[in-house]
Design a protein that fits this description.
- It is a single chain.
- The protein is an alpha+beta fold.
- It has 2 domains: 33 residues; 42 residues, no CATH class.
- The protein is built from 4 helices and 2 strands; from the N terminus they run ααβααβ.
- It has a two-stranded antiparallel ribbon with strand order 1-2.
Length: 75
């Protein structure tokens, strides 16, 4: 007994939507298509003013670096 064509269309649609969702959620997709921006932190300002920055930036500034550049993706 073969499945009817309507069932095949429904499952094909569900498969295509799931595939598209997984593709867009993939990090490689974002690295390829999203705009990448650089954020430059001056360590003197970060350590002196106790700015709200990620902990790894503070750690790198404490290691003696003068500037920390972080690459982020703009949505």
């Amino acid at each position: 007994m073969l499945p009817n064509t309507e069932t095949i269309k429904v499952f094909s649609g569900v498969f295509l939507v799931a595939f598209a969702y997984l593709f867009v959620q993939n990090d490689d997709y974002h690295k390829k298509f999203d705009k990448q921006v650089s954020i430059e932190y001056n360590c003197n300002s970060v350590l002196r003013n106790k700015l709200d920055v990620p902990q790894f930036v503070i750690d790198e500034c404490n290691d003696g670096r003068r500037i920390v550049i972080v690459k982020a993706y703009q949505e």
